[in-house]
Amino acid sequence: MKETLKKIADVCKLIFGYGIMIVLFAGGLTFFGYLAALIIGGETATAICTFIYKQIVPVMIIVTTCLILFGLLCMYLAGEKALVPHSKKKKAEQTHTEQTTD
Hints:
Layout: H1 2-40, H2 42-78, H3 88-101
Helix pairs in contact: 1-2
């Protein structure tokens, strides 16, 4: 059962990674859209900025929020707990430190 959850979590992490990469790329494209509007100027620049602000940015916010929730679900399926004060990584470091001091 645990291995099945790990395989599902690995696929979910892959989807999450590519999704976040696409959203970050879209965010970079909006920057270049605003930059082009700055260079062009006038009414065309206003139309470009309005299109980006009203059409693209709200979709990016919704997709990003969904991807973050999906990523948290993937982490919990894998048994990772990143939103707790003590993670496995810290415990491993503490154990290693205790072993080297003895």
